[in-house]
Amino acid sequence: MERNLTTEAIVLTNKRWGDLHRLVTMLSPSLGIFDAVAYGARKGKLAGGIDPFVIGTFYVYHNQARKVRSITDIEVTFQGEGIREDLARLYVAHAMAEMAMRMHGGDHEQLYGILSRHLVLLAQREVEPRRLFMQFALRFIAIMGLESDLSSCPVCAHPYETQEILYYHTGLHAPCCRSCADIDTETFEMALGPGGRKYLELTRNMEEVSAVSVDLTEATTERLFRYMVRQVNDILGSALRSLTGGVLTEALQ
Ligand SMILES: [Zn+2]
Asked: 157 C-alpha to center of ligand 1: Å?
């Protein structure tokens, strides 16, 4: 491996590294998820370039003897201000970053594409953060090869009626008909109504910028947002840490 490398990357998170430094976790289209130390990050030229959701070109030095990568310079192309000014947007951004870090079996170049485009959209005031999360989740699930069949049941192949409510199969991580569901259908937590299904079918193959501007009632937005969060939790095997807790639920309503 080369000692110096240059890559596009999105900062997903960073944490303290000694007294003065930060360890930065990033997503790169070519390297996937990787860590690099930002030495002296509190001051100096790297400050501001290693905050979560920054997108840019990162210059990285690989010390092979010490097995440490460090960031030597950053050209920021997206600073993410619009995200940090708003609590609901901030939570959604953290959730998307957490999903990126926990993805298994998908393609990192595709993940980089959807995450960078959704972060840029999320910074725009007119974009509704819950609808943006749903669009990201739909594409994230597709990258993992688990895109839901919204026209017929994946278990019994029964074609859905227009007004049919879909239930859920945890083994397949996908919606199914009522009689094939493998979890309790009484609570309706994993029920997908006809309005929500139509919206998902209509928007999932659109360009993101068009998809996030498709209107949806507040009631359907709230129901579908919770549904998509539960589906992501089911796929990842445990709840998204960035979306648990009461603060968030209030911020996102
Ligand atoms: Zn079925």
From this structure: 6
pLDDT confidence of 1, banded at 50, 70, 90? low
Q: Which CATH number fits domain 81-251: 1.20.1440.120, 3.30.300.30, 1.10.10.60, 1.10.150.130?
A: 1.20.1440.120
Q: What is the pLDDT of residues 108-135, one digit of tens each?
A: 999 999 999 999 999 999 999 999 999 9
For ligand 1, the distance from its centroid to the CA atom of residue 108, given in whole angstroms, is: 33
Instruction: Give residue 185 CA to ligand 1 midpoint distance, Å.
Output: 13
The reported pLDDT for the residue numbered 55 is 98
Interval 39-49: pLDDT, tens: 987 777 888 89
Residue among 50, 220, 231, 64 at smallest CA distance from 136: 231
Alpha carbon of 148 to ligand 1 centroid (Å): 13
- For residue 141, the CA-to-ligand 1 centroid distance in Å is 21
Q: Give backbone dihedrals phi and psi of 116, rounded to 5 degrees, phi first.
A: -65, -40
User: Residue 105 Cα, ligand 1 centroid: separation in angstroms?
Assistant: 27
* Burial profile 3-15: b = 16 or more Cβ within 10 angstroms, e = fewer: eebebbbbbbbbe
Å from CA of 186 to ligand 1 middle: 17
Asked if pLDDT for residue 184 goes beyond 80, the answer is: no
